[in-house]
Amino acid sequence: MIATFEIFEETGKQEMEKKTGEKLMHVEFPCEVECPAEVLICRDREITEQTLEKFPNLKLIYILSVGCDRIPFRLLEEKGIRVVHTPGEICAREIAEYVFAGILYFNKNLYECAENKKNTVWGRGLTNTSLSELQITVLGTGMLGREVAKIASFHKMKVVGLSKSGKEATLFDEVRTLGNAGDVLGESDFVVSTLPLTKSTTHIYNEAFFGKMKENGVFINVGRGKSVDETALAKALAEKKIRGAVLDVFEKEPLPEESELWKLDNLMITPHISGRIPNFIDRSLKFFPEIYAAYQNGEAIRTEIDLGRQY
What we know:
Elements: E1 2-4, H1 10-20, E2 24-26, E3 39-42, H2 49-53, E4 60-63, H3 73-79, E5 82-85, H4 92-107, H5 110-118, E6 135-139, H6 143-154, E7 158-163, E8 174-177, H7 184-187, E9 190-193, H8 207-212, E10 218-221, H9 230-238, E11 244-247, E12 267-269, H10 280-285, H11 288-296
Parallel strand pairs: 1-2, 1-3, 3-4, 4-5, 6-7, 6-9, 7-8, 9-10, 10-11, 11-12
Helix pairs in contact: 4-6
């Protein structure tokens, strides 16, 4: 039996039931009564201790999200429940395009032009450099990192990747390990984070990290908010140790009104929208028959989360 807390479009629901041969059971959240389902389709925030108590037969969870850092990894591992997330390709292109909107925002001096407009300043002294003369470093060489690299390569930028393994990856001119960045940060005009959140990546972007960046460099985060020490970033921006930053994710969301980040004129802030696409939930559901078939056949599921590694 397959259960879900979501209410899907009827056509999508019928298509999924036809492809899986299973009925989709709708359950209210929070779940107050025990449910016999073996498979649950839900959002990451709905995977709580209480939810798991009400699903004693649960073997597989399909998360309607690409990110998964809010789930109780240890408890799920103890219970032997497999967890699969929505494949990243559902919105990787849109997030990569967002990254380049941020790059152009700074590279073409759009933020300064917007400020000049407010102050009725003509500002003809502004110049911009071709992207082909610039270097971008992408932390994370997975699907999202490769989408960013694809657009950067099209613009003939030098593309460097940093990953845990340092393994070669297509579209990157060079890949190094995260611990062996060397002079890369000091040579990069744009530094982009696509990393997942783990114990090792929490506050990986700290005062020491920003201190290694180029003074004219721009930091962009479309990974996870908690990977950034926001106090250290605010200081680096306020003291002009780096040129600017683009943040779509934050430690606390919504970003508190009292946050110092709001006051910085060299910071572009967006409310976690880089991956928001129309009909995300129903489009996520279309991947489920493939996932369910692999589960039933005892095959590997390509987007299964390693609960020990937490991504």
